[in-house]
Amino acid sequence: MAWLLALFVLVSFSGFFLLPSSKANSFPVYVVAILMILQIGKGLLVSYKSLVFCLFSVLLAYTSLSVFWSSGLDPSDIFSYFGEVLLVYLMLMAIDKCSRRYDSFISLLFKSIVALATTSVFVIEAQQGGRETVSSLIGGRLSTDTVAAIAYGFAMISACHLASNMSQSFERFVWSTCFLTLLYACYSLDTNYVWLAVVGSIVVVSVSKVWENRSSHFVFGWIASTICLMIAFLYLFDLVLVSERQLIWQSVVDVSYEGTPFFGSGALTEIVPVLDCPITSNLLNDFTNCSFHHAHNMYVSTMFHTGIVGLGLFLALLIVSFGASIESSRRERWLVLSLLGYGATVFLFDGSQYISKLDFVWMVFWLPVGLAYSMEMREAEETYRMTE
Q: Fewer CB atoms inside 10 Å of the end CB: C or N, the chain?
Protein backbone atom coordinates (compact mmCIF):
# COMPACT_ATOMS: atom_id res chain seq x y z
CA MET A 1 0.00 0.00 0.00
CA ALA A 2 2.96 2.35 0.61
CA TRP A 3 3.96 2.38 -3.06
CA LEU A 4 0.37 3.16 -4.06
CA LEU A 5 0.30 6.07 -1.61
CA ALA A 6 3.58 7.42 -3.01
CA LEU A 7 2.24 7.12 -6.56
CA PHE A 8 -0.90 9.12 -5.84
CA VAL A 9 1.05 11.82 -3.98
CA LEU A 10 3.22 12.19 -7.09
CA VAL A 11 0.17 12.39 -9.35
CA SER A 12 -1.54 14.91 -7.04
CA PHE A 13 1.23 17.50 -7.36
CA SER A 14 2.56 16.81 -10.85
CA GLY A 15 -0.97 16.53 -12.23
CA PHE A 16 -1.54 20.15 -11.21
CA PHE A 17 0.09 21.20 -14.49
CA LEU A 18 -1.54 18.88 -16.98
CA LEU A 19 -4.73 17.21 -15.76
CA PRO A 20 -7.67 18.56 -17.78
CA SER A 21 -9.89 19.71 -14.90
CA SER A 22 -9.91 20.58 -11.23
CA LYS A 23 -12.02 17.50 -10.53
CA ALA A 24 -9.45 15.29 -12.22
CA ASN A 25 -6.69 16.85 -10.11
CA SER A 26 -8.72 16.35 -6.94
CA PHE A 27 -9.21 12.63 -7.52
CA PRO A 28 -5.65 11.52 -6.57
CA VAL A 29 -5.84 13.80 -3.50
CA TYR A 30 -8.96 11.96 -2.33
CA VAL A 31 -7.22 8.61 -2.90
CA VAL A 32 -4.27 9.80 -0.78
CA ALA A 33 -6.71 10.81 1.97
CA ILE A 34 -8.44 7.41 1.92
CA LEU A 35 -5.14 5.52 2.01
CA MET A 36 -3.94 7.64 4.93
CA ILE A 37 -7.18 7.20 6.88
CA LEU A 38 -6.72 3.43 6.61
CA GLN A 39 -3.39 3.75 8.43
CA ILE A 40 -3.68 7.06 10.30
CA GLY A 41 -2.71 5.67 13.71
CA LYS A 42 0.68 4.41 12.60
CA GLY A 43 3.44 6.83 13.52
CA LEU A 44 1.08 9.52 14.80
CA LEU A 45 2.42 9.60 18.36
CA VAL A 46 6.03 9.93 17.27
CA SER A 47 5.02 12.95 15.15
CA TYR A 48 4.59 14.99 18.32
CA LYS A 49 8.37 15.14 18.45
CA SER A 50 8.18 17.50 15.48
CA LEU A 51 7.58 21.19 16.16
CA VAL A 52 6.47 21.65 12.56
CA PHE A 53 3.83 18.94 13.06
CA CYS A 54 2.59 20.54 16.28
CA LEU A 55 2.30 23.97 14.69
CA PHE A 56 0.48 22.94 11.55
CA SER A 57 -1.87 20.79 13.65
CA VAL A 58 -2.68 23.74 15.92
CA LEU A 59 -3.06 26.09 12.94
CA LEU A 60 -5.45 23.74 11.16
CA ALA A 61 -7.44 23.15 14.36
CA TYR A 62 -7.73 26.88 15.12
CA THR A 63 -8.69 27.69 11.53
CA SER A 64 -11.40 25.02 11.67
CA LEU A 65 -12.68 26.51 14.93
CA SER A 66 -12.87 29.99 13.37
CA VAL A 67 -15.52 28.72 10.97
CA PHE A 68 -18.06 28.91 13.79
CA TRP A 69 -17.80 32.71 14.14
CA SER A 70 -17.93 33.34 10.40
CA SER A 71 -20.78 35.42 9.03
CA GLY A 72 -23.32 33.95 6.64
CA LEU A 73 -22.73 30.34 7.68
CA ASP A 74 -24.12 27.55 5.51
CA PRO A 75 -23.99 23.97 6.88
CA SER A 76 -22.81 22.59 3.53
CA ASP A 77 -19.96 25.10 3.46
CA ILE A 78 -18.89 24.08 6.97
CA PHE A 79 -18.64 20.39 6.12
CA SER A 80 -16.87 21.19 2.85
CA TYR A 81 -14.33 23.36 4.65
CA PHE A 82 -13.66 20.71 7.30
CA GLY A 83 -13.09 18.26 4.46
CA GLU A 84 -10.51 20.58 2.91
CA VAL A 85 -8.73 20.94 6.27
CA LEU A 86 -8.61 17.16 6.57
CA LEU A 87 -7.22 16.84 3.04
CA VAL A 88 -4.36 19.24 3.87
CA TYR A 89 -3.57 17.41 7.12
CA LEU A 90 -3.57 13.97 5.52
CA MET A 91 -1.45 15.12 2.58
CA LEU A 92 1.19 16.50 4.97
CA MET A 93 1.24 13.19 6.79
CA ALA A 94 1.46 11.32 3.47
CA ILE A 95 4.43 13.43 2.30
CA ASP A 96 6.30 12.59 5.49
CA LYS A 97 5.39 8.90 5.30
CA CYS A 98 6.51 8.54 1.67
CA SER A 99 9.69 10.58 2.17
CA ARG A 100 10.81 8.39 5.06
CA ARG A 101 9.74 5.13 3.41
CA TYR A 102 11.46 5.74 0.04
CA ASP A 103 14.78 7.58 -0.17
CA SER A 104 14.17 8.44 -3.82
CA PHE A 105 10.64 9.79 -3.25
CA ILE A 106 11.52 13.50 -3.04
CA SER A 107 13.71 13.28 -6.12
CA LEU A 108 10.97 11.49 -8.09
CA LEU A 109 8.37 13.97 -6.85
CA PHE A 110 10.22 17.01 -8.18
CA LYS A 111 11.30 15.26 -11.36
CA SER A 112 7.66 14.49 -12.12
CA ILE A 113 6.61 18.05 -11.27
CA VAL A 114 9.27 19.59 -13.51
CA ALA A 115 8.64 17.12 -16.34
CA LEU A 116 4.88 17.72 -16.45
CA ALA A 117 5.26 21.48 -15.96
CA THR A 118 7.62 21.58 -18.95
CA THR A 119 5.25 19.40 -20.97
CA SER A 120 2.37 21.75 -20.19
CA VAL A 121 4.39 24.66 -21.58
CA PHE A 122 4.75 22.82 -24.90
CA VAL A 123 1.04 21.94 -24.83
CA ILE A 124 0.16 25.60 -24.36
CA GLU A 125 2.51 26.67 -27.13
CA ALA A 126 1.01 24.07 -29.45
CA GLN A 127 -2.50 25.34 -28.67
CA GLN A 128 -1.59 29.05 -28.84
CA GLY A 129 -3.50 29.88 -32.03
CA GLY A 130 -3.42 33.63 -31.37
CA ARG A 131 -4.84 33.41 -27.89
CA GLU A 132 -2.90 35.28 -25.25
CA THR A 133 -4.01 33.86 -21.91
CA VAL A 134 -3.19 30.53 -20.34
CA SER A 135 -6.72 30.23 -18.93
CA SER A 136 -8.08 30.08 -22.49
CA LEU A 137 -5.67 27.29 -23.42
CA ILE A 138 -5.60 24.72 -20.66
CA GLY A 139 -7.91 23.74 -17.83
CA GLY A 140 -7.09 22.25 -14.46
CA ARG A 141 -5.53 24.35 -11.74
CA LEU A 142 -3.78 26.74 -14.16
CA SER A 143 -6.92 28.85 -14.01
CA THR A 144 -5.36 32.27 -14.64
CA ASP A 145 -2.13 33.68 -16.00
CA THR A 146 -0.96 34.68 -12.53
CA VAL A 147 -1.60 31.21 -11.09
CA ALA A 148 0.26 29.68 -14.04
CA ALA A 149 3.18 32.08 -13.55
CA ILE A 150 3.40 31.23 -9.83
CA ALA A 151 3.29 27.50 -10.58
CA TYR A 152 5.90 27.74 -13.34
CA GLY A 153 8.16 29.80 -11.07
CA PHE A 154 7.91 27.01 -8.50
CA ALA A 155 8.77 24.40 -11.14
CA MET A 156 11.63 26.56 -12.47
CA ILE A 157 13.30 26.68 -9.04
CA SER A 158 12.84 22.90 -8.78
CA ALA A 159 14.40 22.39 -12.22
CA CYS A 160 17.38 24.54 -11.23
CA HIS A 161 17.90 22.36 -8.15
CA LEU A 162 17.70 19.16 -10.21
CA ALA A 163 20.14 20.45 -12.84
CA SER A 164 22.69 21.54 -10.24
CA ASN A 165 22.57 18.20 -8.39
CA MET A 166 22.86 15.77 -11.31
CA SER A 167 26.18 13.96 -11.69
CA GLN A 168 25.79 12.91 -15.33
CA SER A 169 26.07 15.39 -18.20
CA PHE A 170 22.98 14.10 -19.99
CA GLU A 171 20.81 14.51 -16.88
CA ARG A 172 22.13 18.05 -16.35
CA PHE A 173 21.30 18.84 -19.99
CA VAL A 174 17.73 17.51 -19.64
CA TRP A 175 16.92 19.42 -16.46
CA SER A 176 18.72 22.56 -17.70
CA THR A 177 16.51 22.43 -20.79
CA CYS A 178 13.47 22.17 -18.56
CA PHE A 179 14.74 25.13 -16.52
CA LEU A 180 15.13 27.29 -19.65
CA THR A 181 11.68 26.27 -20.90
CA LEU A 182 10.07 27.22 -17.60
CA LEU A 183 12.09 30.44 -17.53
CA TYR A 184 10.61 31.27 -20.93
CA ALA A 185 7.11 30.47 -19.63
CA CYS A 186 7.51 32.80 -16.64
CA TYR A 187 8.87 35.54 -18.91
CA SER A 188 5.95 35.14 -21.33
CA LEU A 189 3.36 35.35 -18.56
CA ASP A 190 4.90 38.62 -17.34
CA THR A 191 3.88 38.51 -13.66
CA ASN A 192 6.38 40.82 -11.98
CA TYR A 193 6.06 39.58 -8.41
CA VAL A 194 7.06 36.07 -9.53
CA TRP A 195 10.52 37.41 -10.35
CA LEU A 196 10.58 39.12 -6.97
CA ALA A 197 9.71 35.77 -5.37
CA VAL A 198 12.53 34.04 -7.26
CA VAL A 199 14.98 36.61 -5.92
CA GLY A 200 13.42 36.13 -2.48
CA SER A 201 14.12 32.40 -2.68
CA ILE A 202 17.78 33.10 -3.51
CA VAL A 203 18.01 35.54 -0.59
CA VAL A 204 16.73 32.84 1.79
CA VAL A 205 19.35 30.36 0.54
CA SER A 206 22.07 32.99 0.87
CA VAL A 207 21.04 33.84 4.45
CA SER A 208 21.04 30.13 5.23
CA LYS A 209 24.55 29.85 3.83
CA VAL A 210 25.63 32.66 6.15
CA TRP A 211 24.27 30.68 9.10
CA GLU A 212 25.88 27.44 7.90
CA ASN A 213 29.28 29.10 7.45
CA ARG A 214 29.10 31.29 10.54
CA SER A 215 32.28 29.71 11.97
CA SER A 216 34.15 29.81 8.67
CA HIS A 217 36.01 32.58 6.86
CA PHE A 218 33.60 32.02 3.93
CA VAL A 219 30.93 33.75 5.99
CA PHE A 220 32.13 37.19 4.86
CA GLY A 221 31.63 36.31 1.21
CA TRP A 222 28.13 35.04 1.89
CA ILE A 223 27.31 38.17 3.92
CA ALA A 224 28.40 40.36 1.00
CA SER A 225 26.32 38.27 -1.43
CA THR A 226 23.31 38.45 0.88
CA ILE A 227 23.52 42.23 1.14
CA CYS A 228 23.65 42.58 -2.66
CA LEU A 229 20.71 40.22 -3.07
CA MET A 230 18.69 42.09 -0.46
CA ILE A 231 19.31 45.36 -2.29
CA ALA A 232 18.11 43.74 -5.52
CA PHE A 233 15.07 42.37 -3.67
CA LEU A 234 14.14 45.79 -2.27
CA TYR A 235 14.59 47.38 -5.70
CA LEU A 236 12.25 44.83 -7.32
CA PHE A 237 9.83 45.13 -4.42
CA ASP A 238 9.56 48.86 -5.05
CA LEU A 239 8.85 48.19 -8.74
CA VAL A 240 6.11 45.68 -7.91
CA LEU A 241 4.45 48.17 -5.55
CA VAL A 242 3.74 50.39 -8.55
CA SER A 243 0.62 48.24 -8.94
CA GLU A 244 -0.62 49.95 -5.74
CA ARG A 245 -2.00 46.69 -4.29
CA GLN A 246 -1.23 48.14 -0.87
CA LEU A 247 -4.44 50.16 -1.26
CA ILE A 248 -6.38 46.86 -1.20
CA TRP A 249 -4.32 45.60 1.74
CA GLN A 250 -5.00 48.77 3.73
CA SER A 251 -8.71 48.48 3.06
CA VAL A 252 -8.84 44.89 4.36
CA VAL A 253 -6.69 45.75 7.39
CA ASP A 254 -9.05 48.62 8.22
CA VAL A 255 -12.04 46.28 8.04
CA SER A 256 -10.19 43.76 10.24
CA TYR A 257 -9.55 46.30 12.98
CA GLU A 258 -13.13 47.50 12.88
CA GLY A 259 -14.28 43.94 13.54
CA THR A 260 -12.51 41.44 15.83
CA PRO A 261 -8.79 41.87 15.17
CA PHE A 262 -7.63 39.33 17.74
CA PHE A 263 -9.63 36.31 16.53
CA GLY A 264 -10.65 37.52 13.06
CA SER A 265 -13.96 37.48 11.22
CA GLY A 266 -13.96 33.71 10.59
CA ALA A 267 -12.55 31.45 7.91
CA LEU A 268 -15.73 31.50 5.81
CA THR A 269 -16.43 35.24 5.99
CA GLU A 270 -16.16 36.85 2.59
CA ILE A 271 -13.63 39.66 2.18
CA VAL A 272 -15.12 42.75 0.57
CA PRO A 273 -12.43 45.47 0.28
CA VAL A 274 -13.91 48.94 0.68
CA LEU A 275 -12.26 51.28 -1.80
CA ASP A 276 -13.04 54.70 -3.20
CA CYS A 277 -13.33 53.49 -6.81
CA PRO A 278 -13.26 56.88 -8.57
CA ILE A 279 -9.95 57.64 -6.87
CA THR A 280 -8.28 54.22 -6.83
CA SER A 281 -9.30 52.89 -10.26
CA ASN A 282 -6.56 54.92 -11.97
CA LEU A 283 -3.96 53.91 -9.38
CA LEU A 284 -4.66 50.16 -9.44
CA ASN A 285 -3.26 49.74 -12.94
CA ASP A 286 -3.02 45.94 -12.65
CA PHE A 287 -6.82 45.65 -12.38
CA THR A 288 -9.39 46.48 -15.00
CA ASN A 289 -12.23 47.31 -12.62
CA CYS A 290 -12.94 47.93 -8.98
CA SER A 291 -14.08 44.38 -8.21
CA PHE A 292 -11.79 42.65 -5.71
CA HIS A 293 -12.65 39.19 -4.45
CA HIS A 294 -9.73 38.80 -2.05
CA ALA A 295 -6.97 40.81 -0.41
CA HIS A 296 -4.18 39.88 -2.87
CA ASN A 297 -1.99 39.23 0.16
CA MET A 298 -2.04 35.99 2.13
CA TYR A 299 -0.88 37.63 5.37
CA VAL A 300 -3.53 40.36 5.28
CA SER A 301 -6.18 37.84 4.31
CA THR A 302 -5.13 35.52 7.15
CA MET A 303 -5.41 38.35 9.65
CA PHE A 304 -8.89 39.19 8.37
CA HIS A 305 -10.15 35.60 8.60
CA THR A 306 -8.37 34.29 11.72
CA GLY A 307 -7.10 37.46 13.39
CA ILE A 308 -3.77 38.16 15.01
CA VAL A 309 -3.84 34.68 16.58
CA GLY A 310 -4.17 32.95 13.21
CA LEU A 311 -1.58 35.18 11.56
CA GLY A 312 0.84 34.51 14.43
CA LEU A 313 0.38 30.75 14.05
CA PHE A 314 0.80 30.99 10.26
CA LEU A 315 4.04 33.00 10.57
CA ALA A 316 5.30 30.71 13.34
CA LEU A 317 4.77 27.67 11.09
CA LEU A 318 6.66 29.39 8.28
CA ILE A 319 9.57 30.34 10.58
CA VAL A 320 9.78 26.90 12.21
CA SER A 321 9.76 25.26 8.77
CA PHE A 322 12.66 27.50 7.78
CA GLY A 323 14.47 26.50 10.99
CA ALA A 324 13.85 22.77 10.50
CA SER A 325 15.22 23.01 6.95
CA ILE A 326 18.34 24.96 7.97
CA GLU A 327 19.13 22.51 10.77
CA SER A 328 18.68 19.48 8.54
CA SER A 329 21.70 17.74 7.06
CA ARG A 330 19.82 16.37 4.05
CA ARG A 331 20.68 17.53 0.54
CA GLU A 332 17.15 18.58 -0.35
CA ARG A 333 17.14 21.21 2.42
CA TRP A 334 18.33 23.88 -0.04
CA LEU A 335 15.41 23.18 -2.34
CA VAL A 336 12.94 23.30 0.55
CA LEU A 337 14.45 26.56 1.83
CA SER A 338 14.27 28.17 -1.60
CA LEU A 339 10.65 27.07 -2.08
CA LEU A 340 9.67 28.37 1.35
CA GLY A 341 11.28 31.70 0.48
CA TYR A 342 9.50 31.71 -2.87
CA GLY A 343 6.12 31.00 -1.31
CA ALA A 344 6.59 33.53 1.50
CA THR A 345 7.30 36.24 -1.10
CA VAL A 346 4.45 35.24 -3.43
CA PHE A 347 2.08 35.55 -0.48
CA LEU A 348 2.93 39.25 -0.24
CA PHE A 349 1.07 39.82 -3.50
CA ASP A 350 -1.31 36.92 -3.94
CA GLY A 351 -3.24 34.29 -2.02
CA SER A 352 -6.52 34.38 -0.18
CA GLN A 353 -6.93 31.21 1.92
CA TYR A 354 -4.32 28.65 2.93
CA ILE A 355 -7.12 26.08 3.25
CA SER A 356 -8.56 24.95 -0.08
CA LYS A 357 -8.52 22.04 -2.45
CA LEU A 358 -5.19 21.50 -4.20
CA ASP A 359 -4.10 24.79 -5.76
CA PHE A 360 -0.94 26.87 -6.03
CA VAL A 361 -0.95 27.40 -2.24
CA TRP A 362 -0.43 23.65 -1.82
CA MET A 363 2.52 23.88 -4.21
CA VAL A 364 4.34 26.86 -2.74
CA PHE A 365 3.42 26.42 0.93
CA TRP A 366 2.02 23.08 2.06
CA LEU A 367 4.41 20.94 0.01
CA PRO A 368 7.56 22.68 1.39
CA VAL A 369 6.07 22.59 4.90
CA GLY A 370 5.42 18.86 4.51
CA LEU A 371 9.02 18.31 3.38
CA ALA A 372 10.35 20.39 6.28
CA TYR A 373 8.25 18.26 8.63
CA SER A 374 9.67 15.10 7.07
CA MET A 375 13.26 16.35 7.39
CA GLU A 376 12.68 17.24 11.03
CA MET A 377 11.32 13.76 11.70
CA ARG A 378 14.31 12.17 9.98
CA GLU A 379 16.72 14.20 12.07
CA ALA A 380 14.83 13.13 15.22
CA GLU A 381 15.06 9.48 14.17
CA GLU A 382 18.79 9.71 13.47
CA THR A 383 19.40 11.42 16.83
CA TYR A 384 17.41 8.68 18.57
CA ARG A 385 19.45 5.94 16.88
CA MET A 386 22.72 7.62 17.89
CA THR A 387 21.67 7.79 21.54
CA GLU A 388 20.62 4.14 21.74
A: C
